[in-house]
């Protein structure tokens, strides 16, 4: 079967699961219907849970080497199908094809990394207090995992959860975004082709996320929840998991400051800002949300920024030369416009406005004079809108940067070594880009602090999220 065939149903125990209830998957650039997929029902959910539980018990008997080989094959299949995956991703999510190709590489990178890390879940031997005992600690998979992923990175948000879970010996039930379920199904098909057990990676499709997820969060057979999404939903999920004391990983909302100090290389700063702000039309949790410029920098930096932004092309991601695709929904576009209107009403100035766009497309906007009293400084924008604030000195920059409840990613540009050291230690964020606008990397831990969540994805830390430590105490005669 072709990779793009049969993407209409949940994948349960290795087979498509048919129901009579359906919902549409639309191309945000054109509005055309890409697929009419069936909603999973209670019977299908129960079947998936049973298959995941049985598979986890089987995975316990497999070796790390066996799991590593499956992951390597999954990685190879992703790379072999890169053009198909990228095109599907652009069609259902909207990002430019060149970005989609990059996401395939990024997503596959997590599988490659955890194919290696599967063989490195080391335990330890503990020196005993006498010669009659041997003490040790081993690591085993935590159990059946429930994963919930968003629409903005439909491939990467999945592989950086499923790959370490499988490497650890866990089975995985995925509820992808209803806006981008096709990429998830394609990944799961490739995982099956790679030799993954039929209950190891299952995909449940629904447009009623709350109705599906709440019972699973309260089910004792699910031992861990991993979620990427908004802080608001994260709080609800944590409450639902509390009754069964589940392990949780939460990658929640961001409000990233992008600080440019006087000592910065301004050309580098503009290049970094373009990457941190406009990738995926600004629809990333680590997008630069508040641009903090030190007073005296504006005169040199703003003309360079406007020149760079003016070159961006808005359009269908499948068309040649497009830099910015559509926003995911009309509600997302309306929200961004309301944030702009509120900022203007409270004194911000529009210094750049691209050509007005129809449908879900939105042209870049640059605002100056933004203050902390404006909504745009306190909410994720998730759109190609640059909001610029000013600060006088380093201490004010740190105060502004840390003044929000989120703590996911932050960026700053400086060429003063001592300042780089001070600011790195002072920013209350889980990830910091220093003279760099792209921080994500499969080999490094991704995750935030404060209201931006808990746990890490990527790096060796990402494998530990799916492992539990078992202490063994053996007495000898």
From TrEMBL:
Record bears the keyword ATP-binding: no
GO biological process: gamma-aminobutyric acid catabolic process
Presence of the UniProt keyword Oxidoreductase in the record: yes
CDD domains: ALDH_F5_SSADH_GabD
Active site: 251
Keywords for this protein: Oxidoreductase
Residues annotated as domain Aldehyde dehydrogenase: 21-471
One term of GO molecular function: succinate-semialdehyde dehydrogenase (NAD+) activity
InterPro entries referenced in this protein's UniProt entry, alphabetically: Ald_DH/histidinol_DH (IPR016161), Ald_DH_C (IPR016163), Ald_DH_CS_CYS (IPR016160), Ald_DH_CS_GLU (IPR029510), Ald_DH_N (IPR016162), Aldehyde_DH_dom (IPR015590), Aldehyde_DH_Superfamily (IPR050740)
Record-stated family: Belongs to the aldehyde dehydrogenase family.
Name by which UniProt lists this protein: Succinate-semialdehyde dehydrogenase (NADP(+))
Source species of the chain: Pseudoalteromonas byunsanensis
Taxonomic lineage of the native organism: Bacteria, Pseudomonadati, Pseudomonadota, Gammaproteobacteria, Alteromonadales
Gene: gabD
């Amino acid at each position: 079967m072709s990779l793009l065939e049969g993407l209409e149903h949940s994948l349960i125990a290795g087979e498509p699961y048919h129901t009579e209830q359906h919902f549409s998957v639309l191309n945000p650039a054109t509005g055309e219907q890409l697929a009419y997929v069936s909603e999973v029902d209670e019977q299908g959910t129960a079947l998936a849970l049973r298959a995941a539980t049985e598979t986890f018990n089987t995975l316990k008997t497999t070796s790390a080497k066996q799991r590593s080989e499956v992951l390597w094959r999954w990685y190879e299949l992703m790379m072999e199908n890169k053009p198909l995956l990228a095109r599907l991703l652009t069609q259902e999510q909207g990002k430019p094809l060149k970005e989609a190709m990059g996401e395939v590489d990024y997503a596959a990178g997590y599988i490659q990394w955890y194919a290696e890390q599967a063989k490195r879940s080391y335990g330890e031997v503990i020196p005993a207090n006498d010669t009659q005992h041997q003490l040790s600690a081993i690591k085993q998979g935590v159990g059946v995992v429930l994963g919930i992923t968003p629409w903005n990175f439909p491939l990467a948000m999945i592989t950086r959860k499923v790959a370490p879970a499988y490497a650890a010996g866990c089975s995985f039930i995925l509820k992808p975004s209803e806006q981008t379920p096709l990429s998830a199904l394609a990944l799961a098909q490739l995982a099956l082709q790679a030799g993954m057990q039929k209950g190891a990676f299952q995909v449940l499709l629904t447009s009623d996320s709350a109705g599906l997820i709440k019972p699973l969060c309260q089910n004792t057979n699910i031992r861990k929840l991993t979620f990427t999404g908004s802080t608001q939903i994260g709080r609800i999920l944590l409450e639902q998991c509390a009754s069964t004391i589940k392990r949780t990983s939460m990658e929640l909302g961001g409000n990233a400051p992008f600080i440019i100090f006087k000592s910065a290389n301004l050309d580098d700063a503009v290049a970094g800002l373009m990457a941190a702000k406009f990738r995926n039309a600004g629809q990333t949790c680590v997008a630069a949300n508040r641009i903090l410029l030190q007073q005296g920098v504006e005169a040199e930096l703003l003309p360079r920024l406007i020149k760079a932004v003016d070159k961006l092309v808005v359009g269908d991601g499948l068309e040649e030369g497009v830099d910015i695709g559509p926003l995911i929904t009309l509600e997302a576009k309306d929200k961004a416009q309301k944030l702009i209107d509120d900022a203007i009403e409270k004194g911000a100035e529009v210094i750049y406005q691209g050509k007005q766009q129809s449908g879900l497309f939105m042209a870049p906007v640059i605002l100056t004079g933004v203050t902390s009293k404006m909504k745009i400084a306190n909410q994720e924008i998730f759109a190609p809108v640059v909001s610029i604030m000013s600060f006088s000195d380093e201490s004010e920059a740190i105060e502004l940067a840390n003044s929000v409840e989120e703590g996911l990613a932050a960026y700053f540009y400086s060429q003063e070594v001592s300042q780089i050291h001070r600011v790195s230690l002072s920013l209350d964020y889980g990830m910091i880009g220093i003279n760099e606008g792209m921080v994500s990397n499969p080999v490094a831990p991704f995750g935030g602090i404060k209201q931006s969540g808990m746990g890490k994805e990527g790096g060796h830390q990402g494998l530990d999220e799916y492992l539990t430590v078992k202490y063994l105490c053996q007495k000898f005669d």
